[in-house]
Design brief:
Helices cover 31% and strands 19% of the residues. It is of the alpha/beta class. The protein contains 15 helices and 21 strands. The protein folds into 2 domains: 294 residues, Alpha/Beta hydrolase fold, catalytic domain (Rossmann fold), CATH 3.40.50.1820; 149 residues, no CATH class. The N terminus is likely disordered. It is globular and about 70 Å long. A hairpin with a 2-residue loop joins strand 20 and strand 21. It has an 11-stranded mixed beta sheet, sandwiched between helices. Strands 1-2-3-6 form a 4-stranded mixed beta sheet. Strands 9-19 form a two-stranded antiparallel ribbon. It starts with 15 loop residues before the first helix and ends with a helix. The longest helix has 26 residues.
Length: 515
């Protein structure tokens, strides 16, 4: 319950009625805290009570929408039910239902966490969209305490529907394929309406994400419904033009895209419904969560030709149809070594002998030039490292830099390369082949990531910890001013040895890949 105003005693203390009137006046004036307790904040649904954590206050498990379960499965997010009294906000909500199964994951997952410096008002707000290719992951796995405290910003981590629960479609189903992206917009609207009470500035919101979260940020850049909901964007290891090339996971994995037209998704959804014994969505909504395990992964792409996303985002970007905000975008120096490590974990190593065969299979008439540009001899005879460098450039670095150039025609843009050769990988990859600065390895520099050793541990050197400090400074400077603190020319390389400007197009042979 709300703490009751205390009646005045001797010495001229205020009366109970005066205290109530003053509290009401503060709320009407736009102050969201209750009775001068900064951990109690009034939202549109009711009061939430956070937890003091040193110089920070944390509010966890805040509902930004009603549970998307039963009749609300595959519907646009609805407002959360209001409550009376103070709702304790000491524990994060569950991760969204996903495959492979995550402990305690649930369809009832539309919650967010707010981490803010205690005291102060109108601080920059950073809204994090987690990675996982729209099929896995959780915002709760990224602790932003260091980012919030060192950068003096309010950080919000968001859960949104994934896989078949977020991107399913079928004929006649309203908003087919857009539910996960609608969740992201609903969270941004909640932030616009409520974040001032947590010390944040609703007119200075930075949307940022990595991998699938970066692609989600791209979606919001090109979605008409997101206009005005954020004011800067950071895309880490993802872009509107990112797609999986043929052979990106040997030996014969076909290419893939993160976006599909509505007609294709509706067709596939009707087929999946038939296999589940349902002819109508009402039947599907009565099935338990686990009934969708087999069909889950078939719906991990965003859907365009819809009201939320009228056209494919890469096309929209090239046509100049996107939200005009400053953008920071970048990648890791060895993105595709993450995939190389996954293959090694499965017992598959690309040898110097196999490397040319894989390239010839997947690059057709360009194969010989690819082999000339990325010979195994350049990587100490390691065919796997040569293969990973090829895909790092062709699939990650160059499309990201191409999108940066497209954005730069209209808005201020900056780009970076994370280049710590001893970075902690996002999961426990083998030491051989060396993971280098693999996909997602920059994240422990910004967050304490679940399952990863913190930056304060012996895993990191002083030089690596100093790199993490610089990254927090750059990221939060961008959130504060729209400028990370380096030149817009070239690519800013971030490494333990120091920052430097490089010609990213030349370093990653982008003229060749663009030809």
């Amino acid at each position: 319950m709300l703490p009751a105003p205390q009646p005045g005693g001797k010495g001229g203390g205020m009366t109970r009625s005066t205290a109530v009137l003053m509290s009401a006046a503060l709320l009407l004036a736009g102050c969201g805290t209750v009775h001068d307790n900064p951990a109690d904040v009034r939202t549109g649904s009711g009061v939430v009570r956070g937890v003091h954590d040193g110089e920070l206050i944390r509010w966890r498990g805040l509902p930004y929408a009603a549970p998307p379960t039963r009749d609300r499965r595959w519907q646009a997010p609805q407002p959360p039910a209001p409550w009376n009294g103070a709702r304790m906000a000491s524990a994060s909500g569950p991760a969204c239902a996903q495959m492979p199964r995550k402990p305690s994951a649930s369809e009832d997952c539309l919650y967010l966490d707010v981490t803010a410096p205690a005291g102060g008002r109108k601080k920059p707000v950073m809204v994090w969209l987690h990675g996982g290719g729209f099929t896995e992951g959780a915002g709760r796995d990224y602790d932003p305490a260091r980012l919030a405290a060192r950068g003096d910003v309010v950080v919000v981590t968001v859960e949104f529907r994934l896989g078949i629960f977020g991107f399913f479609g079928m004929p006649g189903l309203a908003d087919s394929g857009t539910y996960g992206f609608q969740d992201q917009q609903a969270a941004l609207r909640w932030i616009r309406d409520n974040i001032a009470g947590f010390g944040g500035d609703p007119n200075n919101v930075t949307l940022f994400g990595e991998s699938g979260g970066a692609i989600g940020t791209c979606v919001q850049l090109t979605s008409p419904g997101a206009a005005g909901l954020f004011h800067r964007a950071i895309l880490q290891s993802g872009s509107c033009s990112l797609r999986g090339l043929d052979g990106n996971l040997p030996p014969d994995n076909p290419g893939f895209t993160f976006f599909r037209p509505l007609a294709d998704v509706a067709r596939d959804g009707a087929g999946a419904a038939g296999r589940l014994g349902c002819a109508a969505v009402a039947c599907l909504r009565r099935l338990p969560t686990e009934a969708f395990d087999e069909a889950y992964a078939g719906f991990g792409a965003g859907v365009y030709d819809t009201g939320l996303l009228p056209e494919e985002p890469g096309q929209a970007l090239r046509a100049g149809r996107f939200v005009r905000v400053p953008v920071l975008t970048g990648f890791t120096a060895d993105e595709h070594r993450f995939t190389l490590g996954l293959m090694a974990m499965a017992g598959y190593r690309i040898t110097a002998k196999e490397h040319p065969e894989l390239i010839r299979t997947n690059f057709d008439d360009r194969a010989e030039e690819v082999l000339w540009r990325y010979p195994a001899s350049r990587y100490a005879g390691d065919g796997g490292l040569a293969w990973a460098a090829t895909y790092t450039d062709a699939m990650w670095a160059c499309p990201i830099l191409a999108d940066r150039a497209t954005l730069a025609r209209h808005v201020s843009t900056w780009s970076y390369e994370f280049a710590d050769p001893q970075a902690q990988p996002f999961i426990d990859l083998p030491a051989d082949p060396p993971p280098g600065a693999s996909h997602a390895s920059e994240l422990p520099n910004l967050f304490e990531v679940a399952g990863r050793e913190p930056i304060s541990s012996d895993r990191y050197t002083d030089a690596q910890r100093e790199l993490a400090e610089r990254m927090v400074s750059h990221w939060t400077a961008f959130a504060r001013t729209g400028d990370p603190g380096w030149s817009r020319d070239g690519v800013h390389r971030l490494a333990p040895s120091g920052d430097e400007r490089i010609d990213g197009l030349a370093a990653h042979q982008c003229d060749f890949w663009a030809s």
